[in-house]
Amino acid sequence: MTARYISTRGETPPLAFSDAVITGLAPDGGLLLPETIPDLSSELSKLRILSYKELCLRIMRPLVDIPDDILGKMITESYSTFRSDEITPIVPVKDLFILELFHGPTLAFKDVALQFLGNLFEYLNEQHSSELNILGATSGDTGSAAIQGVRSKKRIRIFVLHPNERISRVQKLQMTSVLDDNVFNIALQGTFDDCQSVMKEIFRDLEFKEKYSLGSINSINWARILAQIVYYFYGAFRTMDITGADKVSFAVPTGNFGDIFAGYMAVRMGLPVKHLYLATNENDILSRFFNTGTYSLGSVHKTLSPSMDIQVASNLERYLYYRCGQNSSHLRDLMACFAGKGSIVLDDKPGDGLDDLLVADSVVKEDMLSTIRDFYREADYILDPHTAVGVTVALRNVKQDIPTICLATAHPAKFEMAIKLALGKNAAHHDIIDKLEGLPSRCEVLPADSRVVKEYIRKACL
Ligand SMILES: *Cc1c(COP(=O)(O)O)cnc(C)c1O
User: Fold this and answer.
1) Among 79, 423, 440, 454, which residue's CB has the most CB atoms within a 10 Å radius?
2) What is the SS3 string spanning the chain?
3) Candidate from 88, 98, 102, 109 with most ligand 1 atoms within 8 A of CB, to mutate
């Protein structure tokens, strides 16, 4: 018996895993979740001795309808691109445990999910003799991880829109230096918002969407969450090995609520966790929500941790569904209110004992920079600005009896400017970034006009 997937909005009949992955968003507009959550709490001691890949297979197995041998191969292939045998190693630094999630091809944690998703898409296409054209908009990091996930894959093309001249040089090169035939980088003459609205307009053209089998790789896809659950177990087990503790906490730098939701699922599957610290930068809409019960949209501030500069946290709906006691009609009311008024108000205050698992806090630039400085001076360890936001929140809450694991979501070499600001010099380097300089690249500059982009896609598919 494998899990079926239901929509948070309750108006879609249950789907098989493969359909859930291909659909992304449920037809009723909701997000997909497993109908029943596997309970692994009685097997923790057995899981604890597994390697990352073995653990991955064991955790995914009850949630995926792919034969074990094929799934196993897919996992092996997906993580063979990581530069650490442990895939996501734990590094004790000062009183904390850093879970390094940046050993994949683009040096960001998104590789953990997107390397797997690329192989999964390839397999599903083969099974259904279908093709997939992925269309995405990026302000930088997701684009390169998605491109690395599907480059050179059969029956898949990827079109990534980024705002021309508005992303960093490194970010641009990480995308445009991938020269595989199935990769199309498009620099739109406009802002990131223009990229997103062009993308949404194209997805709204259902005839076009159908004809070109357009798919999306954004973090509402269940397979991305699934792949991320694994490192919560792995990180907890390694930290328990080191400390002898039987419970841990996690600090998670948060934007779209995808990563921390994977942690929330790990807890529901039986991982013993005291707290999930939700850390935001100045875009603190989520931390205000968890402290006051009110979620209300503001405007996006540009910060040194750009992958967390988000107002609408698209995965929050999954959490709200559980918060509403899995009552879809209550959830639909909340989402309708959000669509109408731009705000959600919970009757009960999250964090007021009702959900003491999640503890939220926000971090301003100066505090984030001094955390980077302190870690460098005292432990010779360089945090990237996203990770530093999480670490700052962890330090504010550290408890001696419960070890705290901080998710390191990117390698610092990706964020030269923040590191220079913090340390007065560019002390973080990585071969992958250094070698980008001078590589040949390919990119099409187009006006921010959905008709022009559609025409470009049409021609590329000929
Ligand atoms: C995407 C990203 C985040 C935020 O993760 P969410 O799943 O959107 O909450 C944090 N740090 C880095 C480096 C990222 O790329």
Assistant:
1) 79
2) CCCCEEECCCCCCCECHHHHHHHCCCCCCCCEEECCCCCCHHHHHHHCCCCHHHHHHHHHHHHCCCCHHHHHHHHHHHHCCCCCCCCCCEEEECCEEEEECCCCCCCECHHHHHHHHHHHHHHHHHHHCCCEEEEEECCCHHHHHHHHHHCCCCCEEEEEEEECCCCCHHHHHHHHCCCCCCEEEEEEECCHHHHHHHHHHHHHCHHHHHHCCEECCCCCCHHHHHHHHHHHHHHHHHHHHHHCCCCEEEEEECCCCHHHHHHHHHHHCCCCEEEEEEEECCCCHHHHHHHHCEEECCCCCCCCCHHHCCCCCCCHHHHHHHHCCCCHHHHHHHHHHHHHHCEEECCCCCCCCCCCCEEEEECCHHHHHHHHHHHHHHHCCCCCHHHHHHHHHHHHHCECCECEEEEECECHHHCHHHHHHHHCCCCCCCHHHHCCCCCCCCCEEEECCHHHHHHHHHHHCC
3) 109
CA of 227 to the centre of ligand 1 (A): 14
10-residue block means of pLDDT along the chain (462 residues)? 90 94 88 96 98 98 96 98 97 97 96 97 93 89 94 95 89 95 96 87 90 87 96 98 97 95 97 97 93 87 89 89 93 92 79 74 98 98 98 92 96 94 95 93 97 97 92
Active site positions, annotated: 110
Cα of 414 vs centre of ligand 1, distance in Å, is 13
CB distance 259 to ligand 1 below 6 Å: yes
